[in-house]
Amino acid sequence: MLGCSSGPVSSEGPSPTRFGAWSDPRTWPSGQVPRAHEVVNIPRDLGVVLDVSPPPLKGLNIYGVLRFDRKDLELRADWIMVHGRLEVGTPQDPFRHRAIITLTGNNPEEDQMGMGTKVLGVMGGVLELHGEPRKGWTKLAQTAPRGATQITVLEASGWRVGDRIVLASTDYDPRQAEVRTITAISGNTLTLDRPLQFPHFGEITYGVDQRGEVGLLSRNVVVRGDESSASTGLGGHIMAMAGSQMRLSGVELYRMGQRNRLARYPVHWHLVGDAAGQYIRHSSIHESFNRCVTVHGTQRLEVVGNVAYDAVGHCYFLEDGAEYKNLLEGNLGLLTRRPDANRGEQPVIPTDRSPATFWIAHPDNIVRNNVAAGSDGIGFWYALPENPTGPSATPTIWPRRTPLGEFSGNVSHSSFDGLMVDRGPRADTLEPEATVYNPRSNPSDTQNAYNDNRNPPVVAEFRNFTAYKHRGNAIWLRGLNHKVVGARLADNAIGVTFASRATTLEDSLVVGDSDNKGWPRDWEFRGVDGRSLPRPWANSNGAIQDNFPIRGFEFYDGKVGFRNVEFVNFQPLQVQNAQGTQRATREAGALSYLRFTDFDIDSRNFAEGARFTNAKPVYLPPRGEPTPEEVASNRNADGYRGSVFVDLDGSVSGRRGHAVVLNHPFLLDAACEVRAEWNAGVCNYGYARLHILNESGGRIAPVALTREDASRPVFRMWGAPNNLNFFGATVIKGRRYTLEAAGGIPARLKLRLDDSEPGDFVLVGLPYSGEPYIYRDYWIDNRNRLLQASSRAEFEASPGERYWSEGGMLWVKLVVRAGREWAVLDICRSELCR
Fold this sequence. Notes:
Layout: E1 18-21, E2 39-42, E3 46-50, E4 57-62, E5 65-68, E6 73-82, E7 85-88, E8 99-103, E9 119-122, E10 126-130, E11 137-139, E12 150-152, E13 164-167, E14 178-186, E15 189-192, E16 204-205, E17 208-209, E18 213-216, E19 221-225, H1 229-232, E20 237-240, E21 245-249, E22 251-254, E23 267-274, E24 279-281, E25 284-288, E26 293-299, E27 302-304, E28 307-312, E29 316-318, E30 327-329, E31 332-337, E32 356-360, E33 366-368, E34 371-373, E35 378-382, E36 406-408, E37 411-415, E38 417-421, E39 424-425, E40 432-433, E41 460-463, E42 466-485, E43 488-511, E44 526-527, E45 550-555, E46 560-570, E47 573-576, E48 583-586, E49 588-593, E50 606-615, H2 628-632, E51 644-647, E52 658-662, E53 673-675, E54 680-683, E55 687-694, E56 703-707, E57 714-717, E58 726-732, E59 736-741, E60 748-754, E61 761-767, E62 773-776, E63 787-788, H3 792-797, E64 802-806, E65 809-815, E66 823-828
Parallel strand pairs: 1-3, 2-4, 3-5, 4-6, 5-7, 6-8, 6-9, 7-10, 8-19, 9-20, 10-21, 19-22, 20-23, 21-24, 22-25, 23-26, 24-27, 25-28, 26-29, 27-30, 28-31, 29-32, 30-33, 31-34, 32-35, 33-36, 34-37, 35-38, 36-41, 37-42, 38-42, 41-42, 42-43, 43-45, 43-46, 45-49, 46-50, 50-51, 59-61, 63-64
Antiparallel strand pairs: 11-18, 12-15, 13-14, 13-18, 14-15, 16-17, 39-40, 44-47, 47-48, 51-52, 52-54, 53-54, 55-58, 55-60, 56-57, 56-59, 60-66, 61-65, 62-66, 64-65
């Protein structure tokens, strides 16, 4: 027996009465050293020191203790189950030789305790894997040009010749990430085994840090799938169950995860519950067939300082919505891939079709100083279910109303979208759905989810986020009571969109085109200056498919806006194909509206404290009335054609308190100042939204509003896609309008004036015959019924409790009462709208 080399036994796990070496027959109850392809059992009273690399095993059950000796070793087995304790180094004394655990089980029908095969499973036991402490990732100190064989990084201490590293893409395409081997080191300059195929940017440009990340893949403690994993997609996996303890640091996970299989991930805490003291730190996961790190039904776990490269589906994965109080800090994720059917890959859950490097299903976690450096989908996705789904399902947890833990100092680049707070999973299908994140003091108070007095909101602050090179949005939030503070954004198709209310961008910097020009592929359109574009694709005739006008802040929904934001380099750009035979102008504007939105907007959306450097302040792309084909597909742009925001302090237009509106006759009159280069006008008017609701059923579209003045401009509406009987128009307060509907005025019509202040009003006339029954402010009873005025003068002077009929026209006056932002009238052909 090897009492002298066994070392102290942790208080966690079993306490063996004897220790022995694996190679010593006296250690084993059978008196024989385990042979190839056997299932080996280490009983609870036995501690074994692995002093040799044993022959390949069928399986290994550890009820006692298995500890790696301090030498180079490899353990190969189809599966390993830890009921006791498996130890390769300790947190206090990390392993400094080379330890490899290779998982070899290739029968996908085999199932070890519900965990399948090729598994390092922890079933109530303790797993301690601790390799050398090494710096997991750094950044480039300067740009590495295409063809370079040397790079200089900020910090290379502890890195060695022979280490494999990965350089992140710094362009829109996440597949510009590259793996190289270090062949020489001089200070912080690394010599690579072959030239770089792409340039990798390494500068802070216009105040936005776009220095590409460089991650270390090599570690001295390795858990891997066997060589066949690459062809079968059946990699190894580590899984800890309830009652287990798992701590990993300085570990390399390679050829792990099992293609298309639920719950078969490189490392996975499965319904562990309170995991305080457990972690994965400063480790690497690369070439994974299914995710990176999965936290499922587990709380208080630490995921810190890791590098994850080339994984299918969501990478750092907080799964069901019952994962909270966890710490994700200082992690790097690169090349998070969409499942590729040509490789036999399928989504494990529907949202894997748009994979996120960080998928977070509960907001109460600390997400700090992480980098999502390239995804086919999203960098950081708060995909919040109404209640937890799957095995974590419970009606007592409400992620969509739980306050945000912390989101600060994170970076996303080289993905489609950067930060997404929307599109959480449906409970029944797990397909994404529009998701309102509405953090409240009492998330479980469903009756008062929107009552600020009884259930006060808790503002969710997303702080110090950096995002660049996104083909879609750097930031997209849906909900209310959100705030983005200290953002640094550059080279995105769209900087910020809030599909929200009570949400602001503050104290931030948004850059249109930076010095990071990227490296367009041969088939891509590019700027004449050689820069890559967020939407570079050509259509069938060779012209650019979507000549998208980039924008920094994109108004939508509302009330939303920004304060104290600097916009830099939003200017038109000449673009062309690689041959120079197709050319176009890509427009740009620091401010715009969600392009051609069909949905409703808020006329109180605002700008305050804007600063512009080499930036066109506003660009609203022209959009006429929809074609029949667009109407048939519900692409009518009703909302967009009413675009308006208020320039509170004049920092956009030079006109304090004026409105900036789309250049549309219905929104302008002769007193407005048209700015053709913006395709907008600046008007000293208050604007509101007039909503028209057909409550009788049947189609009445198009609905037309005419402003009754000398120019008589008309605005036609076809309805919101989610309610074709709901129509909205931006109107000038205090004006007179007439309403017509192609399908006729319905038997019950609701008019609502919104986004207003007490005393605001509009007059609306509509063709009408017979006696109307008109009720005010949702009260359908005779106490609230409007009476006919005795004269037009009495009607126009009234505070909204009278109507007027004349010449086949019914006139009503919507007046906002004290304490309200709206006024409503129900117009019916029968008493009490029966």
